[in-house]
Amino acid sequence: MGHIQVNDFKKTNVPGVFAAGDNTTPMRAVAAAVAAGTMAGAMINHELIVEDF
Ligand SMILES: Cc1cc2nc3c(=O)[nH]c(=O)nc-3n(C[C@H](O)[C@H](O)[C@H](O)COP(=O)(O)OP(=O)(O)OC[C@H]3O[C@@H](n4cnc5c(N)ncnc54)[C@H](O)[C@@H]3O)c2cc1C
């Protein structure tokens, strides 16, 4: 259906790239988009804080 494929943590198969909301699911609703965006944001934060510089 043309959606971006993500796992349960909203991660794509491209390192460092996450997706959330209408572009990932046929369930188009504000509540679903907000929940998905919250998960993506939390996981992005996690990846950043565990990354070694
Ligand atoms: C007419 C209509 C009525 C709806 N009514 C309801 C309702 O009553 N209740 C409900 O829960 N949901 C409703 N929805 C669904 C809801 O609007 C969406 O599920 C929700 O907005 C999805 O949020 P999103 O952030 O994933 O995407 P969007 O809100 O679509 O945000 C995506 C953003 O990305 C921007 N963008 C696109 N391409 C690029 C680019 N290349 N570069 C930079 N920015 C880009 C767009 O301009 C847009 O601002 C409705 C949708 C429509 C179309």
Largest sheet at a glance? none
Q: What is the strand tally? A: 0
Order of helices and strands: H
Structural class, by secondary structure, is: mainly alpha
β-strand amount = under 5%
> Counting H and I runs of at least 4 residues, what is the number of helices?
1
- Fraction of helical residues: 25-40%
Mean pLDDT: 97
Distance between the termini: 38 Å
Low confidence ranges: none
Shape: flat
Gist of the model:
It is built from 1 helix and no strands. It is an all-alpha fold and 53 residues long.
Q: Overview of this structure, please?
A:
By secondary structure, the chain is mainly α. Helices cover 40% and strands 0% of the residues. Bound molecules: flavin-adenine dinucleotide (FAD). The site of flavin-adenine dinucleotide has 7 residues, from helix 1. The site of flavin-adenine dinucleotide (FAD) has 7 residues, from helix 1.
Name its key features.
mainly alpha; single chain; flat; 53 residues; 1 helix
Helix-strand layout with pairing:
Blueprint: H1 30-50
This protein binds flavin-adenine dinucleotide.
